[in-house]
Amino acid sequence: MRYDASGALIDTALPGIPLLSRGKVRDVYDLGDALLFIATDRLSAFDVVLPCGVPRKGEVLTQISLFWFDLLKDVPNHLLSADVTTREELKPYAKDLQGRSLIVRKAQVIPIECVVRGYLVGSGWKDYQKSGKVCGIELRSGYQQAEKLDEVLFTPTTKAAVGDHDMPIDFEGVVGIAGAEKAAAIRDLSLKVYSTARDYAAERGIIVADTKFEFGVIDGKVSLVDEVLTPDSSRFWLASEYKVGGSPVSLDKQFVRDYLETLDWDKQAPGPELPADVVEKTTGKYLEAYRMLTGKSL
């Protein structure tokens, strides 16, 4: 295992257990009859993995995902266990892995990022300013930045490899990749899960502006896989400070994106180091998102 100077887990190594993939944040290992998902403390922005990590970030991502899996019991998912000590081969690494890892079912992953937008912000806002559309969907005129959309939008993208950019596709593109039945299933589930989470979070002072899901097929059922409604995969805004016309106060990595936008950086690898205060504040935002959503502190 490799930790950086701040104590953030940057890389993992489990001798004797095959590494399947090293993503922007997650390392995935093959346990034979299951997979091990480890959420590291790596941080990516603009599809570039930054050289420094954010302490406790992987723990927050894992624990928030577990919270949502439990709340969304009626939606099939890949979770088997969050206790690595249930596997003999993982016990030697339990100190590093417990709290930030999931043991999950193997799935036939559908290679689509299922983006759901409830508010007009980020790349959607930029798209709208240029064309009056978001991912090819025509919108009415007169929207302001960060305004709530008249209806929730399903705006899928391709799922790119590390270092590449996800590309928007229309629903017909999803059908071409996944087939009509699975395309309809992931669209409908994405909208359902977003709406449920949005309403729950609103009661706790958080606006879920947008999010993205991934799905796979397990035992013939389309199921949620990977992380769910975390500060990495979603925009969480403080409802108490929300206003249209700018970038709302967030509890996610938008704070880092906003800092990076002030730098003379071309958004290509390698990414810049983050100042210690930016890293510390980012950890604080992730922990606060968990506390507000769950009512508990990590």
Quick gist of this model?
The chain has 298 residues and is an alpha+beta fold.
- What structural class do helix, strand and pairing data support? alpha+beta
Biggest sheet overview: 6 strands, antiparallel
Strand content: 25-35%
**Domain count:** 2
Elements, N to C (H/E)? EEEEEEEHEHEEHEEEEHHEEEHH
Question: Roughly what is the average pLDDT, rounded to an integer?
Answer: 95
Tell the overall outline.
globular
What is the CATH C-level name of the largest domain?
Answer: Alpha Beta
Count of DSSP strands? 17
CATH architecture of the largest domain: 2-Layer Sandwich
CA-CA gap between termini:
22 Å
Keywords:
298 residues, alpha+beta, D-amino Acid Aminotransferase, Chain A, domain 1, six-stranded antiparallel sheet, five-stranded antiparallel sheet, 17 strands
